[in-house]
Design brief:
Distance between the termini: 17 Å
CATH class: Alpha Beta
Number of domains: 1
Largest sheet: 4 strands, parallel
Radius of gyration: 18 Å
Bound molecules: zinc ion
Structural class: alpha/beta
Helix content: 40-55%
CATH architecture: 3-Layer(aba) Sandwich
């Protein structure tokens, strides 16, 4: 990490400790109805519009690999932008409620578009129990909680489990990541899971290999339909 970003990060860490009620985006004080981000900054998070248009970049990504009902990455992802910082806070700085906020914000747009209206159940991409213990929460589940509150669709955290512990993927080469994401998940095939439409939720879509692995596993459930949602799509 370069020196300037380190200093910036330290300044943010200090600001969070000293002024916990400041907007994570612009640093202005939050009012009682605002959490983490002020209304003005929240409004700056621009949707990609994928929830209004299919086929889109996400459905295209999976088109020749598997079959999904619907897919979208909701927010535009700008390098070093507010969304990237919020997702970093969610994943690495013990801010689980940021996930709920982002999930809720996206879900209002999803609800209006109707894209996931016939989904029966939201399935967050699971973490291995060891990773879950280390982080204290599953960031995808927090996003799912926010979505569930707005869309009024239940969450199922038991239908898909992570079977293999893999180290953090951020430094791995793309092909290594691909190999690494094969057969990492296992679907629990129970009679009540058959013939359901599942919405798999993750934070950021990069190569799609993790989601593809989840989709393929979920499709082992008889007559299951699968859709995918991520907060953002990051290009490597
Ligand atoms: Zn702000």
């Amino acid at each position: 990490m370069a020196v300037i970003p380190v200093i910036k990060q330290l300044a943010r860490d200090f600001a969070d400790l000293a002024f916990p009620n400041m907007c994570l985006g612009c640093g202005t004080p939050l009012n009682d109805s605002e959490h983490f981000v002020c209304i003005g900054c929240l409004a700056l998070l621009a949707p990609t519009g994928m929830h209004l248009t299919e086929p889109n970049e996400v459905t295209d990504l999976f088109m020749n690999k598997t079959i999904i009902e619907h897919g979208c990455s909701y927010f535009k992802y700008i390098k070093n932008g507010l969304l990237q910082r919020l997702i970093h806070d969610l994943k690495y700085r013990n801010q689980p409620d940021v996930g709920i906020l982002l999930g809720r914000t996206a879900a209002y747009g999803l609800k209006r578009s109707g894209i996931f209206n016939d989904v029966d159940c939201i399935v967050p991409v699971p973490l291995h129990p060891r990773k879950l213990k280390k982080r204290g929460y599953n960031q995808s589940e927090k996003i799912a909680v926010g979505m569930s509150q707005v869309l009024d669709i239940p969450i199922d955290t038991n239908v898909l489990i992570k079977t293999t512990y893999n180290e953090t993927q951020t430094k791995k080469h793309r092909y290594e990541r691909f190999l690494n994401s094969q057969n990492l998940f296992k679907a629990q095939i129970l009679p009540e899971h058959c013939n359901k439409h599942f919405l798999i939720v993750d934070d950021v879509l990069t190569t799609g290999s993790t989601l593809e692995s989840c989709i393929n596993e979920m499709k082992k459930i008889p007559d299951a339909k699968v859709s995918v949602f991520t907060l953002a799509r990051a290009i490597e």
